[in-house]
Amino acid sequence: MKLKVLLLSLLLVMPVYADSNKSTELSKFKEAKLKINEIIKSAKAGDVKSQLELGKMLDKGVWLKKDTKKAVMWWERAAEQGNVKAQMLMGTIYLAGQKVPKDIEKSNKWFNKAIESDADFIKIVNIMKARISKMEIKAKKHRRMVE
Fold first, then answer.
1. What sign results for the dihedral spanned by CA atoms 59, 65, 67, 72?
2. 58: closest CA among 29, 28, 93, 99?
3. Phi, psi of 102 (to 5 degrees)
4. What's this model's pTM, rounded to 2 decimal places?
5. Local structure of residue 132 (DSSP, 8 states)
6. Can you give the residue ranges of every domain in the chain?
7. Residue 45 DSSP symbol
8. Residue from 46, 104, 56 nearest 78 by CA
9. Are residues 42 and 50 in contact, defined by beta-carbon separation less than 8 angstroms?
10. pLDDT digits over 37-84, tens only?
11. Residues 53, 71: contact at Cβ < 8 Å?
């Protein structure tokens, strides 16, 4: 008899427990959706941190459909507002040809803007510019050899 009561009580409690788990998951999903909408709204309003975060989410495909072009667009908006982290990111992706076609001039432009925005980045940028110069020299030598 005790076993029947125990089994019956377990059967009655299990659906309640399952419903509470579903409710918690739904609540977390709704919270995440609200947070994403906040980030998008703030990014559109010009908030640099939100633009960087939205770019990262789009680039990685986290909570949003992966879209590298839009990610770069948001990072560029942040860079245009003077965010040094975004400027360095833009310089790096153009230098490496990651996510965008390789473009040494654009890379140089963003590294120079980073220097103008924050003197602490001068050392890093000078290292990157030296690498660019070496790459350009090698490319010119290679072109001469091919011609």
1. negative
2. 99
3. -60, 130
4. 0.66
5. H
6. 1-81, 87-147
7. T
8. 46
9. yes
10. 999 999 999 999 999 999 999 999 988 999 999 999 999 999 999 999
11. no
State pLDDT tens for residues 120-136: 666 666 767 777 777 77
Tracing tokens 């473009």 back to the chain, one arrives at: 103
Token couple for 127: 């290292």
Count of CB atoms within 10 A of residue 53's CB? 20
Q: Encoding tokens for residue 100?
A: 């965008």
At 45, which amino acid appears? A
- Structure-block tokens of residue 43: 């990014």
Distance CA 104, CA 133 (A): 10
d(C-alpha 133, C-alpha 1), whole Å: 86
Per-position DSSP letters for 57-117, written without gaps between them: HHHHTSSS---HHHHHHHHHHHHHTT-HHHHHHHHHHHHHTSSS---HHHHHHHHHHHHHH
Residue that the structure tokens 């990685």 belong to:
60
